[in-house]
Design goal:
Layout: E1 2-4, E2 7-10, H1 13-23, E3 26-31, E4 34-38, E5 43-48, E6 59-60, E7 62-65, H2 68-82, E8 87-92, E9 95-101, E10 107-112, E11 131-139, H3 142-151, E12 155-156, E13 166-169, E14 175-180, E15 186-193, H4 197-206, E16 211-216, E17 219-225, E18 236-241
Parallel strand pairs: 2-5, 7-10, 11-14, 15-18
Antiparallel strand pairs: 1-7, 2-6, 3-4, 4-5, 8-9, 9-10, 11-15, 12-13, 13-14, 16-17, 17-18
């Protein structure tokens, strides 16, 4: 079991909730400073941050798995064969977890997932089925990052390009991407939409969100004003057509 579940830190929880609801996600957990939202594919968590803090407006790469010990065993086996970094069971602030560290020093957690009421790993049936959560690993070493995602069981998703990008699908929902970038490795957040992008555009603008549509060689993308937008923080959240 593997599902994309990034965590976004923000001092604007309510504004983010309005945006995510407009996109078609459904809130499934509301525990004060922690809120979880299901998309048709993948999950996103919001974590409260102090306004203006270093965390405010940042995204942390993360996944959910079914069995931590088995996930660590399989990842370590794959990592041993590929010569990449192993997984390590750790006690995080929120409980037992598994830390995966890439050759570039980028690390992320795999947390235990909870099954749905029907006993499956499905996300909420009320979420827009066309929407997928996308998390991005920006790195100067995209080849090793891509191998690390293979090690954890992500499925390579061929995409027609000629650069160092790599896209992966998580078996139980969500998309994991690797993109080349200068500087320290970091995480990013976006969405894919396998539906009528014009209808989504209308839905968002009707809800009062500022939205811009671009058309480029690789496809059409909506750019939705980010609740965090200020200074060096991203001015928009992207939703690309799949």
């Amino acid at each position: 079991m593997l599902r994309s579940r990034p965590v976004h830190f923000t001092s604007r929880l309510d504004a983010w909730e309005r945006l995510l609801t407009g996109l078609g996600l459904v809130k499934t957990v509301d525990d004060g400073s922690w809120r979880e939202f299901d998309a048709g594919s993948g999950r996103l968590a919001l974590h409260a941050a102090e306004p203006g803090s270093a965390q405010d407006g940042t995204t942390v790469f993360g996944v959910e798995v079914g069995d931590l010990a088995e996930f660590a065993r399989r990842t370590n086996l794959a990592a041993e064969e590929a010569g990449t970094s192993p997984a390590e069971l750790v006690q995080a602030d929120h409980g037992q977890s598994c830390r995966i560290t890439g050759p570039d020093g980028f690390s992320f957690l795999a947390d235990p997932a909870a099954k749905a009421a029907d006993g499956t790993w499905a996300t909420s049936a009320d979420a827009d089925p066309a929407l997928a959560v996308v998390e991005v690993w920006f790195t100067e070493d995209p080849g090793s990052a891509a191998q690390t995602l293979r090690d954890i069981g992500a499925r390579f998703r061929p995409f027609p390009d000629d650069d160092e990008t790599a896209d992966f699908a998580a078996k139980n929902g969500g998309v994991l991407m690797v993109r080349p970038a200068e500087g320290a490795p970091r995480a990013g957040l976006g969405f894919e939409y396998d539906g009528d992008l014009d209808a989504l555009h209308s839905r968002l603008t009707g809800a009062g969100h500022q939205v811009r549509l671009t058309e480029e060689a690789f496809g059409r993308t909506l750019h939705v004003a980010s609740p965090d937008a200020s200074g060096e923080l991203p001015a928009s959240i992207w939703v690309s057509k799949r």
